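User: My advisor, Dr. K., asked me to get a structural model of this assembly before our group meeting. I'm new to this, so sorry if the format is off. These are the inputs:
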Amino acid sequence: MAIKQKTILVACGTAVATSTLVAYAIEETMKERGLRVTIRQCKATEVPSLVADCDLIVATTPVPDNLGKPVIKGLPFLTGIGKADTLDRIEKILRE
Amino acid sequence: MTGLQDMLDPQAICLQVEVADAAAAIGLLAERLHALGRVKGSYRDAVTERERTMPTGLPLGAVNVAVPHTDPVHVINPSLALATLRSPVLFGSMDDPDEMIPVQVVMAMALTDKNAQIDMLQRIASFIQNPAALAALVAAETLLQAQAALSQMAQD
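Assistant: The format is fine. Below is the predicted structure of the whole assembly, which you can bring to the meeting.
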């Protein structure tokens, strides 16, 4: 059964550094797990204006509350601590 | 993927330095990158300001790392500068700016384009996720020792 391709908004402070690392890691792993995703990178400050078009937010820096979409912390992609669990949570949301 | 050592100009490696605080560590590395012609004069203030509002400390366990950086507009050539600190200084955690963590390794990143730097970013992540390599880097007293530590990657 085909699952509708979902969009993940990956946010960090500058939209060039840590979000790039997170975006690559998510894309690679989800591809291995047979899931195609669209990934958009942005600055944390841009999240509120872009949130409407995404299904999930992964952020390495704090983002506002009450965005109406699930938010997952991206720090495990940098530290390695809890990375496997974070990828499983992302996969679960993508398959919903 | 090879290690971090070949991404670091020897002049951009500062070992066992003593700094008063995070801003001083950032200032030292910004100065090195500026002297090497990798960043503009505005880089230092821009990184310092960004660190104040959106800190870059990464809580890793035994040795914590900070990766201060800023917008590409302040950068001339993609680059990296590194300092190990004799005594840790406090950086805010990237995850929670209100949480201060003691940091002993500071890597100032100068980035221009998100896709051009993925290799450098992946090498940094791989390196900092290797506790033995980080411990060896913190202990390094000479450039050769530091380069040997930096050449180690994560085991996964």
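One thing worth pointing out at the meeting: The radius of gyration of chain B is 14 Å.

User: Perfect, thanks a lot.
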